[in-house]
Design a protein that fits this description.
Shape: globular
Order of helices and strands: EHEHEHEHEEHEHEHH
Number of helices: 8
Helix content: 25-40%
Distance between the termini: 11 Å
Bound molecules: D-xylitol-5-phosphate, zinc ion
Largest sheet: 8 strands, parallel
Strand content: 15-25%
Strand order of the largest sheet: 1-8-7-6-5-4-3-2
Number of strands: 8
Radius of gyration: 16 Å
Length: about 220
């Protein structure tokens, strides 16, 4: 089985004590910290900017997986790289110059990710697959935590897994991931599982992460 990473999304954390929230999931066995950046323009919600990434950078040793749900992402990759992002993912729908932007992310020393909304086809990014370290499949319409998983996105994961034979990128799934569907997603070949509400709404974060991992392992043993 390919490696499986769990990336709790701080969107569902308590922002009044964000540092402690991040420490709780690191201690609970998380692999990455997923940071959802929203601009109130590309998506109908507003979250955080580079200053927050800068303040959480010293709190954890885990990679910061910054998911930019913003218009004109070219304005923001450098500030997020400087703030300490490890992975910067931009939406294919948000820029007319994806090739240039992905190269720029790598030049800044970060891993480059590209994301597709549920309505976007894999064909939108096929030409840039050699420029990315990660493809993030949105399994909800971006903007909010706690939404229902869109089942048809599993087929998109399967298409990308086929393309992994010719390119070197991880497949990440984001939105509505829980113990109920993580097994199916693992079977489809997902490498990185973003989990917001399913981890942060649990009192015991370690148990929530363990439960997700147990489902992935169960699938691997089938
Ligand atoms: C949605 C964000 C997700 C979100 C996932 O726009 O990109 O990362 O936080 O939250 P859950 O796991 O609750 O769907
Ligand atoms: Zn996200």
């Amino acid at each position: 089985m390919s490696k499986a990473l769990i990336a709790p999304s701080v969107l569902s954390a308590d922002f009044a004590c964000l540092g402690d929230e991040i420490k709780s999931v690191e201690a609970g066995g998380a692999d990455w910290i997923h940071v959802d950046v929203m601009d109130g323009h590309f998506v109908p919600n507003l979250t955080l900017g580079p200053v927050i990434v800068q303040s959480i950078r010293p709190v954890t040793r885990l990679p910061l997986d910054c998911h930019l749900m913003v218009s004109e992402p070219e304005k923001w990759v450098e500030p997020f790289a400087k703030a300490g992002a490890d992975v910067i993912t931009v939406h294919a729908e948000a820029t007319p110059h994806l090739d240039r932007l992905l190269r720029q992310i790598r030049e800044l020393g970060c891993k480059a990710g590209v994301s597709l909304n549920p309505a976007s086809s894999v064909s939108l990014i096929e030409e840039v697959l050699d420029l990315v370290d990660l493809v993030l499949v949105m399994s909800v319409n971006p903007g909010f935590g706690g939404q229902k998983f869109i089942e048809s996105t599993v087929a998109k994961v399967e298409k990308l897994v086929q393309l992994q034979k010719k390119h070197s990128f991880l497949v990440e799934i984001d939105g509505g991931v829980s113990v109920k569907n993580i097994g199916i997603l693992a079977r489809a070949g997902v490498n990185v599982f973003v989990a917001g509400s399913s981890v942060f709404s649990a009192k015991d974060r370690a148990k929530a992460i363990q439960d997700l991992r147990a489902e992935i392992l169960r699938e691997a043993r089938r």
